[in-house]
Amino acid sequence: MAKKFDEKQIADILAKLEVMHPNAECELVYSSPFELLVAVILSAQCTDKRVNQVTEKLFKVYNTPLQFAQLSEEELSGYIYTCGFYRNKAKNIISASQDIVTKFGGEVPSDIESLMTLAGVGKKTANVVYSVAFGGQAIAVDTHVLRLSNRIGFCDSDDPLKVEKALMQILPKDVWAHAHHLLIHHGRYTCSARNPQCADCLISEHCRHFNGK
Predict the structure, then answer these.
(1) pTM (2 decimals)?
(2) pLDDT over 70 at 76, yes or no
(3) Buried-most residue among 25, 71, 141, 168 (CB within 10 A)?
(4) Annotated catalytic, 173?
């Protein structure tokens, strides 16, 4: 059963996460909304570190929707195969690029609904692009956010959409995007899946997992 958090407790959690992760932000390297979109699609079941290694080379050759729209799946796969699921990712990236060119005038759409019409773009990817590239307030639920939300006690669900809804109800709207990065960094560097560093965690007093409740 999810815990009940009041505003003071939420503020304390966010403040302490900020102390632990003062540089919490998107770790994907990009120079345009389109580059971010491609990087986020590539990041599915792949580390940001690996994606950055791939896109460092890729974006030096191709970095616009029109250029990607004209690629064959084989051409793109040659650059992205180390990201895993590369055939499906190549297909989706090319299809999304073609739609950006033909339906959106060559510009990545800036609203979640339009983003989700693109191939390979689900709610999580749309939320990341909307919040990071366009400054919107949204919470993208990846594996880290899902795990921490359940461990801390914000929710009881393995459904990313239900977790997103729960977090939107608990967290102040004006911090959704930043809170998402705080949770991701906490999951990567402190509250890992297999070996959470509870002794180094400043929010353990609020954590359901740590307190065995």
Answers:
(1) 0.94
(2) yes
(3) 141
(4) no
